[in-house]
C-alpha cells in the first residue's frame, strides 16, 4: 500500500507545492555546503599527513592513537598497528554524533533525500518507513554518540591547553599564544556549545523527572541547556566551519605554506 504523499487519506493535489517563495534555496545551500565539507573532511581524514604543526594538532586527528608523527600522540599509540590513517580511528564518533543529530537529520533529509525538501512541498518518494530500517534506524544511537562526543570535546579542550606551548612543544615560564591557539580555542567553545545544546544533553540533565521542584539543580541545568538548545542549529553550522578552519590552518602550517602568527 502506498504510504507517501499519494497514499489514501491524503489531499489529492497535482502540484508539487503552492508556495510562491524560493523554498528550494535553503536545501540547495545545505547540499552544497555540506557536500563541500564531506569532500574536504574525507580528503583530510584519508591523507594521514600534515595534521600536526607543533604545538597544534588537527581536531580531525585528535586524539591521535594510531601510528602518528612525533609529538602528536598525547595518549599513547595503542593502535600503532592500524594500517590506515589515524583519523579513521576516532572520526567515527564525532561523525556519528553529527549524522544522528536531530538538526542534521532535518538538514540532510531535506537536502539529500528530499524527504521532504521543504515544508508544504511534496516529496518524490512513494513510500515512507521512517527510521525503522537500515540505515536510518541507526539514528536511534544518537544518545550513545553524545556520550562519546563529550569525551572528544574534553580531549579537544586538552589540545587547546597544549596549544599554549612554544613552537617546540615545550612549556615556558610564560604561556605562548599564536593564531592557531586562538582558532583552536574558538573552535572548542563552539564544539562545547553544539554538544551541550543537544537534545540528548537536555534529556540527560532533566529527563525522567516527575517534579522539577524536588530537583532544583537539575532544573537549573535543564533550563540552561534548553536556552542553548534554541540555538542548536547555529552552533551545529558554526562548529562545522570552525573545525574545518582549524584543520586547514594546521595543514597550511605543516606544509610550510604559511607561518604561524605568534602573539606572545
Description:
This protein has 264 residues and is mostly helical. The chain has one domain. Helix content is 49%, strand content 2%. The chain has a two-stranded antiparallel sheet with strand order 1-2. Helix 1 crosses helix 4 and helix 5 (142-162) runs antiparallel to helix 6 (179-196). 28% of the residues are buried. The chain crosses the membrane at residues 23-43, 79-97, 144-164, 176-193, 235-254.
What are its keywords?
264 residues, mainly alpha, 9 helices, transmembrane, membrane, transmembrane helix, Succinate dehydrogenase
Quick take:
With 264 residues, the chain is an all-alpha fold.
Oligomer: single chain
Radius of gyration: 22 Å
**Side-by-side strand order of the widest sheet:** 1-2
Proportion of beta-strand residues = under 5%
Q: Which percent bin holds the helix content? A: 40-55%
Q: Tally the beta strands.
A: 2
Largest sheet: 2 strands, antiparallel
Overall residue-averaged pLDDT value:
91
How far is the N terminus from the C terminus? 68 Å
The helix tally amounts to 9
| Helix/strand structural class | mainly alpha
Low-confidence stretches are none
- Write down the overall geometry: globular
Tally of separate domains: 1
Elements, N to C (H/E): HEEHHHHHHHH
Organism: Nocardioides euryhalodurans
Keywords: Membrane, Transmembrane, Transmembrane helix
Protein name: Succinate dehydrogenase
Transmembrane segments: 23-43, 79-97, 144-164, 176-193, 235-254
